[in-house]
Amino acid sequence: MDMLITFLQSTGFALLTWQHLLMILIGSVFLFLAIRLKYEPLLLVPIGLGMIIGNIPYPDTLSLGVDDEGSVFYFIYQGVKLGIFPPLIFLGIGAMTDFSSMIANPKLILLGAAAQVGIFITLLGGLALGFTVNQSAAIGIIGGADGPTAIYLSAILAPEMLGPIAIAAYSYMSLVPFIQPPIMHALTTKSERKIRMEPPRNVTRRELIIFPIVGLIITALVVPATMTLLGMLFLGNLLKECTVTDRLANTARNALIDVVTILLGFSVGLGTLGENFLQLSSLKIFTLGIIAFSIATACGLLFARFMNLFLKTKINPLLGAAGVSAVPQSARVVQKVGQDADPQNFLLMHAMAPNVAGVIGSAVAAGVLLSKLAQ
Amino acid sequence: MSTIWNNIVENEGFEIAGIGILLVFSILLLVSIIIGLMPRFLAVFSPLLDPHAAKAPPAAPDETPRQRAAAAAAALHHHLTSSER
User: Fold this and answer.
1) How many CA atoms lie within 13 A of A315 on its CB side?
2) Residues of chain A neighbouring B16 (CB-CB closer than 8 A)
3) DSSP string, A185-222
4) Fewest C-beta atoms under 10 Å: which of A197, A212, A248, A308?
5) CA A84 to chain centre
6) How much is the pTM?
7) Cβ-contact B44, A148 below 8 angstroms
8) Alpha-carbon distance A354 to nearest alpha carbon in chain B (angstroms)
9) How far is the C-alpha of A32 from the C-alpha of A43, rounded, in Å?
10) Do the chains contact at B19 and A368, CB–CB below 8 Å?
């Protein structure tokens, strides 16, 4: 009888708290959104199930969780904690990314820089709300709209906030079609949204091969802390463009990125322990995250309008919104909002230029923050 | 209000934000300038990068519309005179 009572006391039911229950419920909502509504399923399925597993309580005598050294989940979680998964995701992104639209129209790269202003303004907002400077920097990077970069930076600068920051970053990335259009309409006129872009020039194979090499050398020499993320991004892109490593490029953009996405999403879910996640600070992080995202979009749009003051051939200011690096969601939003004003206007190809520049920009911003703040 | 301000100032918030924005713009501006200049660099260095192309005979200069019209007229004349025979 004692044995039965001891067993019952060690079950998950006996150890459940309201925090566990709420997190299991949130994980289930993620799964519902992903499976029933097909809402970012590649991310939300591993995150949602990871959340449920991470919040099932177990007795202290067992070593099962991400904090229990030696457990399987502990080792999987090290990929996030040590910043291994995000650069591997960047390798796959590099092998998928076509930089030709950016190379054809290099002035659009500046829009990718302008959208990163949101990161630094939100850093000030984080400090104003009482977060430490490292935590504020990790929250600000949500404005870069780049999940892997947000995870990479917060794992180093504010590991205690990794869960909420990762969830906020990926949530807002998937909410791009809802967050960006009102800001785009508010900050541009209809005639501006109708501006048609000139067709881009043809980019040679040689330019496509040289770009990742030169891009890496410049960025890494100026901010060495960007080397991990951008080194992997440009490696992936070189594998794609050099045409002699097709097999490796195919693996990087298919099998490898899929494996790492599963592990990254699952680890992020595992790390969202109820007692750490359900805090007032998480609410502040979500609020600051959406502010960061909105400021980033607004800065991109306003900078595009500013550029038009000096350009003979005007650019469509909507392209500025694609400076946030949510690839390719924000470029698609630009296309859609542009076509609402003029159904014959095709902006997608042009929007990819600031979009991929935004990936580089957010990695550079992360590198700058790491250089200053990492101990 | 002063606590908020102090927290930002004491943690060098303005310096980090200002220098951060400046650095991101500078690096991407540099990348953009180099990409913009790349076709010119490649034109200069293409004989080194692709020696076969350098040894190839120079391509014919672009024809003017007048030359093109003359060539078309000559071809038509040749065609008509040969068919008359």
Assistant:
1) 31
2) 120, 123, 133, 137, 369, 372-373
3) HHHS-HHHHTPPPPPPPPPPHHHHHHHHHHHHHHHHHH
4) A308
5) 15
6) 0.87
7) no
8) 11
9) 13
10) yes
Distance from C-alpha of A332 to C-alpha of A328, rounded to nearest angstrom: 6
Is the distance from CB of A203 to CB of B38 less than 8 angstroms? no
Residues 6+ apart with CB under 8 A from A313: A198
Among B5, B11, B37, the strongest candidate for a mutation testing the A interface, having the largest count of A CBs within 10 A, is B11
Contact A117 B30 (CB under 8 A): no
- From chain A, which residues contact B within 8 Å (Cβ)? 102-103, 106-107, 109-110, 112-114, 116-117, 119-121, 123-124, 127-128, 130, 132-133, 136-137, 204, 206-207, 210-211, 214-215, 218-219, 222-223, 357, 360-361, 364-365, 368-369, 372-373
Is A121 in Cβ contact with B28 (below 8 Å)? no
pLDDT tens for chain A, residues 1 to 375: 788 888 887 788 888 899 999 999 999 999 999 999 888 888 899 999 999 999 999 888 888 988 899 999 999 999 999 999 999 999 999 999 999 999 999 999 999 999 999 999 999 999 999 999 999 999 999 988 888 999 999 999 999 899 899 988 888 888 888 999 999 999 999 999 999 999 988 999 999 999 999 999 999 999 999 999 999 999 999 999 999 999 999 999 999 999 999 999 999 999 988 888 888 999 999 999 999 999 999 999 999 999 999 999 999 999 999 998 888 889 999 999 999 999 999 999 999 999 999 999 999 999 999 999 986
User: What residue type is A213 in one-letter code?
Assistant: I
What residues have CB less than 8 Å from A145, skipping those under 6 apart? A169, A172, A173, A176, A293, A296, A324, A325, A326, A330, A358, A362
ipTM of this predicted structure: 0.88
Give the closest-approach CA distance of A216 to chain B in angstroms: 10
